[in-house]
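pasting for the record
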Amino acid sequence: MSISRSLPQSKEALLKSYRTRLKDDVKSMLENFEEIVKLSKGEHDTQLSRMTQCEQDTYEMHVRAANIVRAGESTKQAECDQKLMSLRDDMAADLYDLEEEYYSSINK
């Protein structure tokens, strides 16, 4: 009986961690996109030469684009994990019902 009680708690904790991860990933994607847009304006007053500043901005845009891709992949993985968890729970419930039906039919 204690196992059935701990299962919903762990499931809720897992769902909460997925929600947190999703919010963090979306926030990361948004922040990186905003920074790429800011960098694309190209109006910086710096001590660096124009070519050096251009190369630095290009590198930073590549890094931020990679961060967006990483956050997208993490979001996709979280969605896949949630679907697998749902499938696992459905299969467990169906298996329990089938076992119950099987063992009750033997006793008759």
